[in-house]
Every structure is written in structure tokens, then in C-alpha cells.
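pasting for the record
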Amino acid sequence: MAYDTRFGPSAQTPEQRARVLVQMQAAVPRLKTKATAVARQLYARYVAGELSWLDVHEALQATT
């Protein structure tokens, strides 16, 4: 597997990104409690490796 610079060293696989997302949601509960359908879709795309967390953040900012 090639190293993808869009993700940190601990978030190279979908499983790792899912764990990172859970950790971020635990640290910032509003990421989970106030997650809209659009936010959940963006999170899924992050876990799948389609978007970086920066892409997710920018997309969420654009919707507010």
C-alpha cells in the first residue's frame, strides 16, 4: 500500500480512519451529536479515503 500524504500515518486504511473519526467524535462530541445527513455522508467518504479531513471540514463550513 502506498503512503497517502492526505492522511496521517495512523489513518492510512479505512479501519484506521474509522477509528480516528470515533476518536475525533469523542473529543468533539458535536461532530456526532449535531451530525446532519450531509455530515454523515462526508464522514463516510473520509473513512473510504475519498476525502481528507481538511476536505470534510471545508465542505462542512460551506454548508453552514
